[in-house]
Request: fold
Amino acid sequence: MLDIGTSKIGCLIAKAQAAPDWLDGEPMQFGLLGFGHHRAEGMKGGMIVNLDSAEHCIRSAVDEAERMAEVTVEDVAIAVTCGRLKSDSFSASVALANGVVREDDIARILAGGWQYAARDGRTVLHALPISYDLDDNRGIHDPLGMSGERLAIDIHTVTADDVAMRNLMLCVERCHLGVSALVAAPYASALSVISQDEAELGVATIDFGAGTTTLSVFQDGHLIHVDAIAMGGYGLTTDIARSLSTPIEHAERLKTLHGSAFATPSDECEIITYPTVGDAHGHNLNQITKAQLAVMLRPRIEEILDQMRKRLAANDHAADAAQHLVLTGGGSQLTGLPELASNMFGKPARLGRPKPLLGAGDVGQGPDFSTATGLLHQWARGDDRLSSRSQQRFLGTGTGYFAWVSEWIRDNF
Reply:
């Protein structure tokens, strides 16, 4: 599992310990075999901007995980934040020739949905069946083998720009690794931190990364919306660095150790020292109170949250579904952030941490590793396997059938 972020690249190697899907009952557990991470270079907003630098960092993270696990990795699932992630929902139906729902009938609709979503230079990351209708019977979970005359499926798709995905896969393939899956990072991180009840009742997960902040919404156990903006915790770091004329690494340290969304009366008395740019040995340290640092950070934090609030409000279905918020990612660890988010969204908010890995100790347990561990849970769900298999089966079987699918798409979407 490979999480390629703006500030760090993480690689997890794990072994499944149980079979059930966590949304259907007993959660699947994973035993950690190997873990590696490396400071990211050649990345901006989750996108490759320098192939050589990014390749070196990926190789280093994977190599560290391989040495710990004592295995050789051949294929990886990649978390995706770049490429202007787009969410879309639609319905399609098909007449049942034999009066019984067969796997081919479901596969045909999902293949058409996959092809429909792949228009306009987009790569399909997910084509997820949300619910099935059989004649006048709505909300069926699994129609396979049932009798009826017409089957309809509500499908949710997540897509990204082709060019960004091609460059991402090119960089990974240069590391002599195959790409087993491209997974929307907001989907993965949510699976890592939300509970079964939250997924059923409705929840929005906001993942504060270094270069991007992502949004995902679940309802009735299904992903119904994702979004992302090219703003994140690194913006807070640069705000501190510019305002105080301090090196980036010290600005990051100030943010991580002392950053807060609110200033309390006691913060006025807490003095923090920091060096200035050019003073490599720290001979002339400046001072700032913790309260002043909070005031410095507040505008950027509010800007990010406001953008997320507007993105959520722009989708009526997602906005209605999100009963409360779960905050995760490295930037979510700022003191007071859940309270500020709750005030701005008008919804309860909590900090989300990844579900623990067996034998991992503290490894991968922080909110900044929610996406990496979430890739494991996305693999365990297996909800993309049918749509992926359908796409390969029906859209790659020859021009005659492809033409038929294209005509069917025009009639049904």
Observations:
- The CA atoms of residues 44 and 306 lie 22 Å apart.
- DSSP finds 13 helices and 18 strands in the chain.
- The two ends are 34 Å apart (CA to CA).
